[in-house]
Amino acid sequence: MAPVVETPVRESVYRPREPVSLRLVLGSLGRGHGDPTFRWDLDGRHGAPGVWRTLLTPEGPATIHLAQRLDGDIVSRAWGAGAEWATDQLPRTLGSEDDWSGLDVSSVPLLADTLRRRPDLRISRVDLVLEMMIPAIIEQRITGLEARRAWRYLLSRYGTTPPGPAPQGMRVFPDATTWRRIPSWEWHKAGVDPARSRTCIRAATVADGLERTLAFDPGREVESRMRTIAGVGVWTAAETAQRSHGDPDSVSYGDYHVHDVVGYALSGEPADDDRMLELLEPWRGHRQRIVRLIYASGFRKPRFGPRMTVQDHRAH
């Protein structure tokens, strides 16, 4: 008997006005290899290489597959109760509202050359605040390896089965009630210490209020409201707003790597967080765009100095 293929709830073709790179625009949404909510589709099982995402929309869970054609158009197929929302959201997710026209980087050859070569770079706006904040909280003060392990564990335990033909192992982000009810020993097994788990629970408790910040333009008002949650500092608010609100100016102050990458790229020297902000000040309003340009350029800081030590809280 031939296998049953579930028909997509929504199929569409998005024709962006400006060039768009799925890899550059959506890459920041994936939480490492094996992220249960994000999977690159390299074999092109739906006609062309692309990406799978699962998401918990205001209308319910959704699975969406995106594939980019040679002409730049993006074919989307979506399943689940949130399929219509995910499809309608697609232009914003791919940076349709991210306007780079006012950015002048002519004084810095690295930036100017990258902007010329990568006109398909945009900042994504996903309009899902809690879904962007929880992994950012989990990533506080630990290595990427630890954070990704914790994220995979919690999603495998508490995420829901995605609709449609999502690849094996993918899960849908749990709702706020589920996050609030995760017992302490499960956070412990995931390697998330009590301070971060409590912050996740606090965020889930005010989830409705977080989503209401989507009515505000990205900026200080959004950041200040996020930071009313105990345990959410400037780094977590920035990492969230960059993705949820598509904030083109927020900077990951307090990150272990970003300040040095910016410092070496713009001055040839390492920089602390305050020096990073000084270097980015000429582009206030576009500072996250400058950071994205630096990373898109392929620039890498020199490799020397200590790395963060991997901590395993599960044994404590």
From TrEMBL:
One of its GO terms (cellular component) is cytoplasm. Transmembrane segments: none annotated. Keywords: DNA damage, DNA repair. This is 3-methyladenine DNA glycosylase. The lineage of its organism: Bacteria, Bacillati, Actinomycetota, Actinomycetes, Micrococcales. Coiled coil: none annotated. PANTHER family: DNA GLYCOSYLASE, DNA-3-METHYLADENINE GLYCOSYLASE. It comes from Amnibacterium flavum. It comes from the Bacteria. The keyword DNA damage applies. One of its GO terms (biological process) is base-excision repair, AP site formation. One of its GO terms (molecular function) is DNA-3-methyladenine glycosylase activity.
